[in-house]
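fold description:
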Amino acid sequence: VVETQLSSGRNFVRHVHSLEAPKRKYLPFSLCQKHCKLLWSATIFLSTVRVLFFNDLSQPADFSLNHTINMYLTSEEGISLGVWHTVPDRLWKEAQGKDLDWYQKSLTDGSPIFIYLHGNTGNRAAPHRVGVTKVLSALGYHVLVPDYRGFGDSAGEPTEPGLTTDALCIYHWVKSHSGNSLVIIWGHSLGTGVSTNTAVKLADQGVIFDGVILEGAFNSARQEIPVHPFIWYYWKYPGIGIFFPKPWDRNVVVFPTEENLKKMKSPILFLHSEDDHLVPIPIAQQLYEVALNAQNAERVKLVTFDGSLGYLHNGLYRDPKLPGILKNFVQSLQFLKNG
């Protein structure tokens, strides 16, 4: 069961979510041109889709993350971001009862630091996001998981430039507290678009990420639309595409991952399940080729997971081989950084 809370377009989006096999042979809703922007943004930024129970995000221990602190960072005026910082497992006992100052100082211990940029539904407490955090912490890494503006308990409304600004805020905060530690960006789904946008923005300033992981990467927000979980049923009707070109042409939401990859200099690891039902595997293979052509096989890797494992779009964190894959990637980054 899901609930959608939008400041505008409430009835429309709630109707779209009620997919009870319409009997009509025509679209059960009408859209004026002025509503296209709302529809487009609502289907990309599902920040307000929440399960119907209360999540107190200020208490990460409630989600079995008991060596984690909740904090809030100001991305820009009026935009406060909720963030979890989980320390490496080896610090579990020492972390009990510690305050924000202790957690901040722990970032200087030399351990690699991951910033996890999540996908387009829910918040940082989603089970698969907690799962990724646990995998990384068990490997001895710090993990920071923010909710973008409009997600979770973060203020504001989500936009593409806004999400990029939020990611930049988290990155700069981490760098200011972590000395010379490796800082790695892990983007999942929508977060891959945010990650590459942020990487290019920083590259323009002469800053290169130490490493980037792109899990379930898509080429652009538009490419993901035909398999979007809340509008897949309606896409089969003739003419549905006419509602999207106008906002697309106006660059309402773009996330040009392919173009970004051509400009990126960071080592990149693509992770993708062959049975991903939201972003088909050929998209990841296409993006890998683009990144490979822009860099080389030493700096760009693609790891796929057999479809028979049933990981779909969110389940890669369960794979027993994933820790080894991540450890090897981090070691390669440390070699590049020190070499």
